[in-house]
TrEMBL record:
SUPFAM superfamilies: 2Fe-2S ferredoxin-like (SSF54292), Ferredoxin reductase-like, C-terminal NADP-linked domain (SSF52343), Riboflavin synthase domain-like (SSF63380). This is 2Fe-2S iron-sulfur cluster binding domain-containing protein. Gene3D superfamilies: 3.10.20.30, Nucleotide-binding domain of ferredoxin-NADP reductase (FNR) module, Translation factors. The lineage of its organism: Bacteria, Pseudomonadati, Pseudomonadota, Alphaproteobacteria, Hyphomicrobiales. Residues 136-235 form the FAD-binding FR-type domain.
Length: 382
């Protein structure tokens, strides 16, 4: 079993932590247990704000404050205290790979029993649905359909020929490799269990893989799919309203989430907002209009940010329209996907409107270069 030495992690306005490796020469963190000087830690699940003394772990401070923080071994070996680091910076003392995998850590998870705050922090222990883990597969697939969803988005259907079964949660993504192009992350647009894998791939100016898909990929091509990855998936046991916001090909994971919620007969209202620049950027509008007509819980609103000429559609930025429509976000979970600028603006707006960070599940479609710059991993690197 791999053991991890002390490391420091921080999370500011970024969605994911930016790890800084502390070398063994740095030695263990000096402890002064119970010191009154320390950092405030907000525990989102209860809303409590506790003082964590210098050198005291978040778990120790929470238990001292009478908070029933989930835990087991208290030594970084069982994973029972796994939590989201929502804000702030911590030092993680040694722990086992079983308790916290690198992929989880890179996605912003920590072990509360090993985490000593380096600043004011906000953490949330995992809810039941956060614990879903699907086996990672490498699939051999074949292109069985490819068509234009819009002028710049291709809809690609893949049949799995080997490597399955491929299980995933609605909203997750995979690392997809078309022959002759670098691997890129793309979100499954089909709900789990569908016979074909569906991807929506928008051509990006100057892009490698998306241009390859737009111009070269044809029926019968072999495609490698590795996954699933990602934590922005449908929380199936949640019963509050669902707010789903998609921009462009961000409709892919949102389609999977909405279709799965309907297939499971989840009873709550589902507010689906789909933003595009102009009419030609919209797709699957009839599909979602038909779903909304058949399911009274679903409301579908296409929004144009920059329409050419007169339109009967709603106009403006998609997240602002959603925010304006929904006065009460109490108990709501939001799923957001698409261009980073939209996802970041939507997340900011919803947090400012009082939605808790653990209720915002966002996938910003960063490019591989942007991910590298921010020290994040793509599916291909996980
Ligand atoms: C979790 C996740 C899910 C995603 N899901 C989808 C999806 O469902 N559908 C979808 O369409 N997209 C999705 N994406 C985006 C996708 O992974 C690709 O980033 C996108 O298709 C562009 O890839 P590309 O190879 O065409 O472009 P790239 O070759 O990566 O280039 C992208 C841009 O970066 C520029 N660039 C290239 N190299 C550099 C460099 N070294 N320095 C600076 N700039 C550079 C290029 O000029 C171009 O403008 C997702 C991304 C993530 C992270
Ligand atoms: S309580 Fe076991 S890993 Fe934290």
């Amino acid at each position: 079993m791999e053991l991890h030495a002390t490391r420091r992690y921080c999370l500011g306005s970024q969605q994911f932590p930016l790890p800084t490796t502390v070398s063994a020469a740095d030695g263990p963190v000096e402890r002064c247990k119970g010191s009154r000087v320390g950092h405030l830690v907000k525990i989102t699940n209860t809303g409590a704000e506790i003082a964590c003394g210098v050198g005291v772990t978040i778990l120790e401070a929470a238990l001292d404050a009478g908070i029933p923080y989930p835990h087991g071994c208290q030594s970084g070996n069982c994973g029972a205290c796994k939590s989201h680091l929502l804000d702030g910076a911590v030092t993680l003392d040694g722990y086992s790979d079983f308790a916290l995998m690198d992929e989880e850590r890179d996605r912003g998870l920590i072990l509360a029993c090993r985490a000593v705050p380096d600043s004011a922090c906000e953490v949330a222990w995992l809810d039941e649905d956060d614990l879903i883990v699907h086996p990672r597969r490498i699939l051999a697939t074949t292109v069985v359909a490819i068509d234009d969803a819009t002028h710049d988005i291709k809809r690609v259907l893949l049949a799995v020929s080997s490597g399955g079964p491929f299980t995933f949660s609605a909203g997750q993504f995979a690392s997809v490799t078309f022959d002759g192009a670098p691997p890129r992350d793309y979100s499954m647009a089909n709900p789990p269990g569908a016979s074909l894998l569906e991807f929506h791939i928008r051509r990006m100016a100057g892009g490698n893989t998306s241009a390859h898909v737009a111009t070269q990929v044809k029926l019968g091509d072999k495609v490698r799919v590795e996954g699933p990855f990602g934590t922005s998936y449908l929380r199936e046991s949640h019963r509050g309203p669902i707010l789903a916001i998609a921009g462009g090909s961000g409709l892919a994971p949102i389609k999977s989430i909405v279709e799965q919620a309907l297939a499971l007969k989840m009873p709550q209202p589902i507010h689906l907002y789909f933003g595009a620049r102009d009419e030609r950027g919209l797709y699957l509008v009839e599909h979602f209009a038909a779903l909304a007509a058949a399911h009274p819980t679903l409301r579908f609103t296409p929004v144009l940010s920059d329409p050419e000429g007169a339109t009967t559609r709603r106009t403006g930025f998609v997240h602002e329209i959603a925010g304006r429509d929904l006065a009460d976000l109490d108990g709501c979970k939001a799923y957001i996907a698409g261009p980073p600028v939209m996802v970041e603006a939507a997340t900011r707006l919803l947090l400012a409107r009082g939605l808790r960070r653990i209720d915002v599940h966002a996938d910003a479609f960063y490019t591989a270069a942007e991910m590298q710059e921010a020290g994040r991993k793509t599916g291909a690197q996980m």
